[in-house]
Write a structure and sequence with these properties.
By secondary structure, the chain is an alpha+beta fold. It has helices spanning about 1-30, 135-140, 205-210, 225-230, 245-250, 265-275, 275-290, 295-300, 305-310, 330-340, 365-375, and strands at about 35-45, 50-60, 70-80, 90-100, 100, 110-115, 120-130, 140-155, 155-170, 180-185, 190-195, 220-225, 235, 325, 345-350, 355-360, 390-395. About 30% of the residues lie in helices and about 30% in strands. The strands form four sheets. It has a six-stranded mixed sheet, sandwiched between helices. β8 (about 140-155) and β9 (about 155-170) form a beta hairpin. The termini are far apart.
Amino acid sequence: MRTLQFLAAGAAVVGGALFGAIEGRYRRHPGNDVVVDDVAWNPSRPAPGALRVEGSIALRNTIRLREVMVTDVRPTLTLLADGPVDGCAVQVTVRSERADFPARADRYWTSYVVKPARYDHVSPVRIDVTVDGPADELDGVYALAIEIALDTYGFEGPRTQFHHVVLPLRFPDPADAPPWRPAADGACEVRPVRTHLLGPLDDVVEVVRRYAGPHARPGDVVTIGESPLAILQRRFIDPRNQRYGWIATRGAQFMSGEGSLGTAGGLQALIDDVGAVRVVAALIGGAAGKAVGRAGWFYRLVGEQGRLVDDVTGNLPPYDNMIVIGPADAGAVCAAVTAATGLLFAVVDANDLGRVDVVGASAGVDHDLVCAALRANPAGNGEETTPIVVIRPTGAA
């Protein structure tokens, strides 16, 4: 009898280990994911009542040994404008530019295989946008949001993934900025700087040069919000692209119902960024801390990224439908900006409640001064599109 019990227990352990190994391997597998590279996007206004975009993307398979089939590519366009655009007619066309699968005249998308990564193969796709309408309506369009739905078939069956492109059309004059105003009880002055609608096609160094350069001088500190920097790094996630695991769907119920980690999407984004083991350890530690009357253990254990996740509705359109996680390597980004521009630079997390955290900064930045200067959140959290703030210590030359 004991032998049977021993064998049963052993079989259960082996079975559990095998199940865990298979499940873990499945979770780590990229599935049908196809990487979309933005090759070129060229908007133009050939006439007052016409807007054109010539776009080019490339599809890549990052799985070394597995094929992925692309069964359809469906781009859609949203006009982001100051006023109505009811009079505008929009047409978006897509065509394959692969020699072995040329575009059909009837615009039907012919399914094809994207070869495994070991072949170092890319599949080029052309996307053209035509917008015709009243000139005054088109003048009010400040950006284009293009969503590209890719229907794929492969390891995990049929799956649709979404790629997003934001094309700014309006670029503010860098010299047009609000006046300097005192901050930190007179210890410094601050000037919020308006930019175009930032996106992954932008480079942070060029953004700082273009918009902060005319205002900043030696000794000033240029800051950017952590969410705008994360957007520049394409660290935003369409919730429809996520694969929701057991930890996220069950663990979210133990988080605050009013925070970004209180949804399966927000928590899954954190898991994908810092790892499931760390999040589970933080959940256990947080529960233990609450049991003894100590709050905040979860965030201490999970690290800084836990506080930087912005769930859906946390950012301005069109990123209001995205989960934005914290920026990567903020300190290295700051050092690179300073090396390229000569300006002191910091990445900050500020809100309207007066809380300011310096997420990263170049050498020589006074963290206390930055926190005091931004306590009133001069950049704002709404649609001010002033993600950059220049801080000038009082008495700076």
